[in-house]
Amino acid sequence: MVVLELGHMIEQGDKHEVLTRPSQPYTRMLLDAVPELSLRKRQPLPEADPLLRACKVSKAYVTGSWPLSRRHVHALQEASVSVRPRETVGIVGESGSGKSTLARCIARLIEPTSGDIEANGRSVARLRGRQLSPFRRDVQVIFQDPYRSLNPRRSVGSSIIEGPINFGVPHAQAWSRAEELMGLVRLMPEALNRYPSEFSGGQRQRISIARALACEPRLLIADEAVSALDVSVQAQILALLEEIQRLTSVGILFITHDLRVASQICDRVIVMHQGRIVEEGLVSDVFFAPREDYTRRLLAAAPGRHFSFARSAETPRDPADPTNRHFRIRGAADSTRA
After folding, report:
1. Is residue 260 part of a domain?
2. Residues 115-156: pLDDT tens digits?
3. DSSP string, 259-319
4. Assigned domain for 157 exists
5. pTM for this entry
6. Residue ranges making up the domain that contains 8
7. At 252, which CATH number?
8. Which of 129, 219, 265, 308 shows the smallest number of beta carbons within 10 Å?
9. Cα separation, 185 vs 191, whole angstroms
10. What backbone phi and psi angles, to 5 degrees, belong to 39?
11. Are residues 220 and 321 both part of a single domain?
12. Helix (H, G, I), strand (E, B) or coil at 166
């Protein structure tokens, strides 16, 4: 194994030697950022009505243009989920299990074939056009690819204020809010006049989070929002989402194929397989006392589950603290000073 930092090879050796007894601070920082499949203690949530409830949502696609070749593909079958304020609900499963289809139906980016979606006590599953405007403001999506989710021809500031302006917020007020949000996501307000190409992947994902928060949503849907990022930046984004949740009481629907990430950030978890929900419950129950064979197979396939990485012991690691020193070592892939 070879470890590179800023174009220089700083460490090399047998993989077990490097991963269990690293000699360089940068290597230790990378290992500290690798998520563990472990149970984290989270504050109990107060009883509250769900921000959003999806009930028996299904989605079927029709393939084939000729009558004899036409068939129905059931991407999602009677899936139900609810999210409360300050709650993070994870949806996990292998590729093609229906995770993103469920998220897109809930966000009304695609129309469900059947089932109901309720927000603020009102059904939104069949609303269209202007009728959906209040729902669009309450539910915002953070997409997977930080390089494709921002318009390269628009400044960062223009992208962030577009949503609020469309909902009637004056330009000056929307811009002031954008400056506040840039500070919240650990970026300088002056960067609002720059373009996406001037930022790293982790910084672009922070900007995407700021853009989603600009509409003051009640629910964030993070669709594989950290899967395209390296582990050090991934840890920063997860910590940022937790901090935002504490400050705003927003609910989060967190879509991921990485069980280790889900165990770190989620309160409840839903396991999907072939378009159906096969198991759901608290993280402690689903990941550490699974009932279903499919869940056990997913856990057994989790990479690095039986490998003990070296961890820095001199300072307790708190992933919920974005100022944690492990995230600010010089040369990290995504500087918080940017």
Report:
1. yes
2. 999 988 888 888 888 888 889 889 999 988 888 889 999 999
3. HHHHHHH-SEEEEEETTEEEEEEEHHHHHHS--SHHHHHHHHHSTTTT-------SS---T
4. yes
5. 0.82
6. 1-33+308-338
7. 3.40.50.300
8. 129
9. 12
10. -85, 120
11. no
12. helix
Tokens representing 8 are 């220089």
Cα–Cα distance measured from residue 114 to residue 99, given in angstroms and rounded to the nearest whole number: 17
- Angle of helix 201-213 relative to helix 231-248, nearest 10 degrees? 20
Bridge partners, 221 (sequence order): 141, 253
Phi then psi for residue 325, to 5 deg, are -65, -25
133 and 27 belong to one structural domain = no
For the stretch 91-121, pLDDT in tens is 999 888 889 899 999 999 999 999 999 988 8
Q: How many domains does the chain have?
A: 2
**Which of 315 and 223 is assigned the larger pLDDT?**
223
Examine the domain organization and report whether 124 and 19 are in the same domain.
no
Q: Do 172 and 284 reside in the same domain of the chain?
A: yes
39: in domain: no
Residue 319: the pLDDT is 41
Q: Which two tokens stand for residue 13?
A: 């050796």
3-class secondary-structure state, position 31: helix
Q: What is the pLDDT of residue 81?
A: 94
Instruction: Tell me how far apart the alpha carbons of residues 224 and 236 are, in angstroms, rounded to a whole number.
Output: 15
The answer to whether position 20 is within a domain reads: yes
